[in-house]
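quick one before i forget lol
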Amino acid sequence: MANCERIRLFSLLITFSKALTAVIRTQQTVLAAVGEDAEFSCQLLETKDVLQVTWQKISYEVETNVATYSKYFGQRVNDGFTDKFGFKYTGLQNCSIVIRNVTEQDEGCYHCLFNTYPEGSFTGKPCLQIYELHEPVVDVRESNSTEEWVVSCSATGQPAPTVTLSVSQQDLSFSQYNTVSVSNTNATFTVTTTAVLSGSRNNSTQVGCAARVLSAPHREVMVTIAEVQQTSDYDIDDSSWITVIAAVVVFFVFFVASLHCLKKKKK
C-alpha cells in the first residue's frame, strides 16, 4: 500500500506540474544567428498574484538565476550576466529578456518562473538554437554545348544549409543537378549545388541562389548572365574581316604595280 500511495502522489505531482506549465505561453524554439540578439518572451495566461518573475539558464541540468523582476525591487540582472542579458519588456504577467550577441555557448533551454502566492511557481521553458549562414556565392560559365551554361552555388553554414537554384526566364530550365557537402574544421559545412541551365536566354536573364538553414530566414543572391558571343572555330568577327580585306587590297595593288614595271622593262 505504501508503494501504491507513493506512486499515486507522484502521479498527482506530475499532473500538477503539467497544469502549472500549461498556463505559460512561450516560444518552444528560438532561432538566432551567431552574433545576433535573441529574445525570449513568457506570458502568464491566467491572472495570478505574481510576486516575482525569475529567468534561469539551464546548463547540464543545473539551473542558474540570470535575471529577476519583482513588484517591489523592479528589474535586476545578476552579476556575471549584465553584458549578456537585458530586459526587453517587464511585467508580472508578461515578461521578456534579450540575449545579446549570441554564441554557441548560449545555446540551450531557459526557464521563466512566475512566482505566485500562494500557489507557487508557474514555469515556461523556451529553448535557443544557434545557426550560422553566410551569403552564397554563384558562378556561371559556358558549357561545351550551344545554349547551355553550368551554374554552381556554394553556401557555408551550421548546420549544413540547403542550396536552391532559380532562373528568371520561364523557358529556361535546370538539369543534371549535383550537390556536394564538405565539413569544415570550424564545425560549419559548405554545400555546393551545380546544374546545367538550358535554353535561349536574353541579356536580362538572372540566375538566383537561395541558402537556408533550419526554418531561419534564407539568404539569396541574384546574378545577371553576361552576353556571350557564340563563335565556331571558323567564325571571323568584323575586325578580322577588315584585316583580311585590307591585306587583299594591298596584295592586289602590289601585284598590279609589279606587272606595270615588267611591261616597262620589256619595252
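fyi The first strand starts at residue 24 and ends at 26.
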